[in-house]
């Protein structure tokens, strides 16, 4: 099971680690070559997360029609090709391809998790799967080493994505289709505050990830430490969330995320900021899943996960644009980080632990 999880973990590693987050590394090149404003850069980031939102909404229906195994691998390979072409034709083409890559990235992320759960994946195996995002973040600076134009940078990311996508094919024979989703009863009212927190978290964390290299620089160190922190997510937050509970654990991980995002820390101690942020940003998924299990009957879990994915993706779609406007207002990238920190501070309010 561990080997299969590690193979499938390359899916989110390339679809999110390379396909989404490495955009922050290419952004300085795009601004220098294409003359992008901060607002335009934010719109490109939002295009990708809007695509993810659309893909998340229709993922189960589309993957159910194609077959989860076929859909996962098809989306995985296609997104690498889309990524390679993103820098080939200027801003309008990049916008459309960033949108399409977001759709394909959602199909990869949701499809791989469903396939792993169909194998009876444990929480530890799912943690390894989610942690694959950190591997992509860790590798991205090395794929981009020496790239001098947006076209060359995106081509390298796409080629690296395609090469890494070959390894999960070795798991094809052991994968099986998940059963049809159960439709159960149960009110989602107990988790509505958590859904609001999750949406605000999505907006805040993607704002930081999009603009941190523009505001701070030294992108190789930043993304290396982000990736290392993300790889440790399961080790650090899994036992803690089990100990304190999902809701309280959600507040704790969001607090670490907020502190790591603060511009004074990011600009004064960028390595510490990147490590703390990488350590915390995937831990939110573990915490909110545990909170759903505690607050809802099992019959309501599928609807809760679907709705939370939509709330998260919607926040991600809005975050880069809001952060870009913040950078425009201050005339420098630091403004984007202040917007991201503000959104994460707001996420703490609905996640505030309640007395039993």
Automatic annotation (TrEMBL):
The chain crosses the membrane at residues 40-59, 71-93, 99-119, 126-147, 153-175, 187-207, 219-237, 249-266, 272-292, 304-323, 335-352. This is MFS transporter. It is found in: Membrane. The keyword NAD does not apply. The keyword Repeat does not apply. InterPro entries: MFS_4, MFS_trans_sf, Tet-R_TetA/multi-R_MdtG-like. Keywords: Membrane, Transmembrane, Transmembrane helix. SUPFAM superfamilies: MFS general substrate transporter. It holds the Pfam family MFS_4. Its main location: membrane. It is a multi-pass membrane protein. It comes from the Bacteria.
């Amino acid at each position: 099971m561990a080997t299969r999880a590690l193979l499938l973990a390359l899916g989110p590693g390339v679809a999110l680690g390379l396909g989404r987050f490495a955009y922050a590394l290419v952004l300085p090149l795009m601004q220098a070559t294409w003359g992008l404003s901060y607002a335009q850069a934010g719109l490109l980031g939002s295009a990708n997360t809007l695509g993810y939102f659309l893909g998340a909404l229709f993922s189960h229906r589309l993957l159910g029609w194609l077959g989860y195994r076929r859909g996962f691998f098809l989306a995985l390979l296609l997104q690498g090709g889309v990524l390679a072409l993103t820098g080939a034709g200027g801003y309008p083409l990049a916008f459309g391809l960033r949108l399409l890559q977001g759709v394909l990235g959602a199909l990869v992320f949701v499809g791989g998790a469903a396939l792993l759960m169909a194998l009876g994946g444990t929480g530890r195996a799912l943690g390894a799967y989610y942690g694959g995002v950190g591997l992509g973040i860790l590798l991205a600076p090395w794929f981009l080493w020496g790239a001098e134009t947006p076209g060359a940078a995106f081509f390298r990311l796409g080629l690296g994505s395609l090469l890494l996508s070959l390894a999960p094919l070795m798991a094809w024979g052991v994968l099986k289709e998940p059963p049809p989703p159960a439709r159960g009863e149960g009110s989602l009212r107990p988790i509505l505050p958590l859904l609001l927190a999750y949406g605000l978290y999505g907006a805040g964390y993607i704002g930081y990830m999009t603009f941190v290299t523009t505001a701070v620089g030294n992108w190789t160190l930043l993304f290396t430490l982000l990736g290392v922190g993300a790889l440790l997510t399961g080790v650090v937050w899994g036992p803690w969330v089990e100990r304190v509970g999902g809701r309280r654990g959600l507040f704790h991980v969001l607090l670490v995320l907020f502190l790591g995002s603060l511009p004074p820390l990011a600009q004064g101690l960028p390595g510490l900021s990147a490590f703390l942020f990488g350590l915390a940003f995937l831990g939110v998924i573990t915490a909110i899943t545990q909170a759903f299990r505690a607050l809802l009957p099992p019959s309501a879990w599928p609807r809760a996960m679907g709705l939370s994915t939509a709330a998260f993706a919607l926040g991600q779609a809005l975050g880069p644009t809001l952060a870009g406007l913040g950078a425009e207002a201050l005339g420098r990238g630091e403004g984007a980080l202040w917007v991201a920190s503000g959104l994460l501070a707001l996420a703490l309010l609905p996640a505030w632990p309640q007395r039993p």
